[in-house]
Fold this protein.
Amino acid sequence: MHIQDIFTKYLTTFSFEFFPPKTEQGAEELFKNIAEFEALKPAFVSVTYGAGGSTRELTHDLVVRIHDSSSLDPIPHLTCVCHGESDILEIIERYARAGVSNILALGGDLPRGMEQYDRGQDAFRYATNLVKFIRVFNESGAHPDKRGFGIGVAGFPEGHPATQNRLLEMDHLKAKVDAGADYIVTQLFFDNRDFFDFRERCDLAGIRVPIIAGIMPVTSASGLKRMAELAAGARFPAALLRSVQRAGDNADAVKRVGIHWATEQCRDLLDHGVRGIHFYTLNKSDATKQIYLSLGLSSVSA
Ligand code: FAD
C-alpha cells in the first residue's frame, strides 16, 4: 500500500525493521517469527540494505518473499554508496514489477575496509539525489501505482555525525523532503526529549511530512555496545546505563530493563501524538510483542 494511503488508514503507524539473514537457517528462523509479527498487524515492515549494496540480492529476495507469502507490507531500504545509476534503476524497476509500493531512500555508509573508496564513482552522493531519481522514475509512469513509489528518508534527532552544523543539517533534511520524500523515519534514540525537539525543529524548518520515531529496545549488554557502534552519535542516558549496570550479569534482567525503558518511551511518544513508531527488531518478535502488550496495543497473548 502506498505510504500516503497507510497514513490515511492509520492515525498512528506501528512498523518493524528486519535485516536479510545471510544463511538459509537464519531466513527460516525469521520466517518462523514472521507469523508472530503478522499477529501484531503492523502498518508495514522494512528490510535493510547491507552497506555498499552487500545484501543487494538478499534484500530483494526477502522483500519479495514477504510481499508474496505473508500479510506484511515490505518497504525495502536502498542506499547510494557503491552504486551507479544503472544499478539503482535496475533495482527499483524490479521492485516496481514485484508490486512493491514504497522505498526508504538512504545515503548509506561505506562498508568496513572500504574507507579509501572514491565516492566520485557513485551516481548519487546524498539521499536527496536518490529521492529525486525515484521521483523521476515515478513520473515516467513505469510503476503500476500511478503515483509511483512512496518515498521515505532518514532523520537524526541527535544529529548526523557528518554534519556538525545543526542548522545546515536541517536544511539538508528539508531539501530531502522537498525533493519528494513522503515521510521521515528517525535513527534510534533513548531520550524522547531529543525526538520532541527534533519534531519541533522540523516544524520550524517547514517540514510537514509525517515523522516516525525509531525505537530499539536494549535486549542484552552486548547489544547495547553494538548499538553504540552502529548508531553513531546516539546518547545513552545515565539512568538507562545505571539500570543495565544494576542488572549485572543477569541476561534476563538486562532484557527486562531494556524492554521497560522502550515501553516507557513508546507510552510517552503516544501520549504526545507521535505519528508512528518503527521498531528495530533485529528479526526477533519477543521484545516488540512485550512492548505491545504493556501498551495495551493488541490482543495478542504473551
Ligand atoms: P544523507 O541524507 O545523504 O545525509 C548524509 C549526511 O550528508 C548528513 O550529515 C547530511 O546532513 C549530509 N548532507 C546531505 N545533503 C548534503 C549536501 N547537499 N551537502 C553536504 N552535506 C549534505 N544504512 C545502510 O547501509 N543500510 C540501511 O538499510 C540503513 N537503514 C537506515 C534506516 C534508518 C531509519 C536510518 C536512520 C539509517 C539507516 N542507515 C542504513 C544508515 C544511513 O545510511 C547512514 O546513517 C548514513 O550515513 C546517512 O544516511 P542518510 O540517508 O541520512 O544520508
